[in-house]
Amino acid sequence: TASEAHIRTAEEVARRVMTLAVVAIKADARDHDWAQSLAMQFDVHRSATPEELEFLNSLDPDEDFAAFSWRYESMYALLWSIGQVASLDQPSGQIDVVKVVQPLIDMKPI
User: Fold this and answer.
1) What is the pLDDT along the chain (110 residues), one digit of tens a residue?
2) Is the pTM here over 0.85, yes or no?
C-alpha cells in the first residue's frame, strides 16, 4: 500500500544504478578483477542484493550471466526516474548498452 511504500531519494537510486552497472558489466565482460575494482570504487556492496553480492564475489559464478546482464534495462528506467534520461523508449528489443552507460558517464550531480 502507499503507506508502506518507501520512496527512495535520488542519491539512493543513483547508488542502485551504479550497483546494477557493475553487475551488468561483470556479466558482459566476465572479468572478476575489473568488476571488483569497480565495486570498490563505487561502493556498490551497500545496495546490492544478496544474489548480486554472491555473483560479484564469486571467482567462477555458476549464475546465469545473461540474467545479470539484464540489469541494463533496470538501470535505464532508474536513470529516467531521477531525470538523467529524458524519456523511455518503447521496449521493442534489446537495449543499447552505450545508450544506458553514457548517462552514467555524463551524470549530473544529484
Assistant:
1) 778 888 889 889 989 999 999 998 888 888 889 889 889 888 999 999 999 999 999 887 666 788 888 888 888 889 889 888 888 877 777 777 777 777 666 655 44
2) no
Q: Determine the residue type at 104.
A: L
Strands of 1-110, DSSP E: none
Query: What gap in Å lies between CA 11 and CA 108, rounded to an integer?
Result: 11
Buried b (16+ CB within 10 A) or exposed e, 4-42: eeeeeeeeebbbbbbbbbbbbbbbbeeeeeebeebbeeb
Which among 82, 7, 68, 75 is positioned nearest to 32, based on CA atoms? 68
CA distance 87 to 37: 31
